[in-house]
Amino acid sequence: xxxxxxxxxxxxxxxxxxxxxxxxxxxxxxxxxxxxxxxxxxxxxxxxxxxxxxxxxxxxxxxxxxxxxxxxxxxxxxxxxxxxxxxxxxxxxxxxxxxxxxxxxxxxxxxxxxxxxxxxxxxxxxxxxxxxxxxxxxxxxxxxxxxxxxxxxxxxxxxxxxxxxxxxxxxxxxxxxxxxxxxxxxxxxxxxxxxxxxxxxxxxxxxxxxxxxxxxxxxxxxxxxxxxxxxxxxxxxxxxxxxxxxxxxxxxxxxxxxxxxxxxxxxxxxxxxxxxxxxxxxxxxxxxxxxxxxxxxxxxxxxxxxxxxxxxxxxxxxxxxxxxxxxxxxxxxxxxxxxxxxxxxxxxxxxxxxxxxxxxxxxxxxxxxxxxxxxxxxxxxxxxxxxxxxxxxxxxxxxxxxxxxxxxxxxxxxxxxxxxxxxxxxxxxxxxxxxxxxxxxxxxxxxxxxxxxxxxxxxxxxxxxxxxxxxxxxxxxxxxxxxx
Length: 484
Description:
- It is a single chain.
- The chain has 484 residues and is an alpha+beta fold.
- It folds into four domains: 7-160, GAF domain (Beta-Lactamase, 2-Layer Sandwich); 171-255, PAS domain (Beta-Lactamase), CATH 3.30.450; 257-326, Helix Hairpins (Orthogonal Bundle); 337-482, Histidine kinase-like ATPase, C-terminal domain (Heat Shock Protein 90, 2-Layer Sandwich), CATH 3.30.565.
- 39% of the residues lie in helices and 23% in strands.
- The chain contains 14 helices and 18 strands.
- It has helices spanning 7-22, 28-42, 79-85, 101-108, 141-160, 194-200, 204-207, 255-292, 298-326, 341-350, 354-357, 375-391, 438-443, 450-459; strands at 46-53, 56-64, 73-75, 90-94, 113-121, 124-133, 179-183, 189-192, 222-226, 232-239, 247-253, 337-339, 360-363, 371-373, 399-406, 409-415, 464-469, 475-482.
- The chain has a six-stranded antiparallel beta sheet. The protein has a five-stranded antiparallel beta sheet with strand order 8-7-11-10-9. The protein has a five-stranded mixed beta sheet with strand order 13-15-16-18-17.
């Protein structure tokens, strides 16, 4: 059993977390700091938090011996997911009693016990907090009490929507029906149906006799309004027949529709910009060759042809990525098979552009076990990760590709020494068309599709991919696949 809980260290560390929140920090940095504080105080070998949505869960924060699991998905129909979401809210679990792949992965990392507590808001599960222990460190009831308390703290962060959830729209966004309110002439709520509470997160007790939490459009008109937490509501209003000058207001969550509209507009803007550049260069050099062929020497002609070829390759690659993002990227229905990961990495490196290949440092052990997956798609994954590393680092800086085995998993990493990635961006970077803050788009051109495609390809092979800041500066992208 672990030593007694270090409550002074836990309280001191928790104070730091609260000060982070009070100073404006939110989301993943705060959550990860909470795990870093709790792990040594609890005597745990590692900590992890799994965020759950309608389609399953994903490890969004991990420390210590659990860091390898960062980014790992948990499907909704996985038996381990069902086990973690059932039973008491706080409990102790022996890893060997789990029935899915997770048990083998944890055992392979010498993790055999866990204390797990669900983070819940009004009976809705937003995630689960895990403290992991080795075989010799069976936890006790004190650890369960602290983990239950910390899970409640995380649930409170979700209730505030302070940078969380990382995925999805939160626990009170999806409404089963339109919200309905009746307001008096002063704009105060007289009736507030359950769907209104579900859409806005404002209970009946909070809403009655208070002003609406959004602007009231003129009677008969429709207004789209953005709430402070970033969600969009479509609001309509009309006069209610009868005395008293009452107005009925209906509203629904249209965040997904707004996001789709935004993605469509962003797709047009980004692709038009990215396509225009190579097309303009190709046309310019082609016109030069056509109009000035006789006046150009052999060196100039070859240079023009070389540039046209390079830009045509860029254009072809961009078109492939756009088509892949609109279709099902990855191996499709092809079954997973064992393949030599080291040989596949070396082969994929050989197909990279020469200017990128010169910067690579490949460190792959000769006895690396086989991986289970779809070998041809590895070239796409490595191309996207190395291209991304090259784009966000100095032209003469090295890019390291390393590989290793970790229990039942085989992993490879692409590490650069570039501008790095902020902790709150490590998950958003996998969103389609997302490229960091607005100023980054012009400084680092691209369609924002590479990491999106990588995650889709890897997860279709029962693996997962994650990003993290590199110690000393830069970014590490890590792909984990099952052993063959």
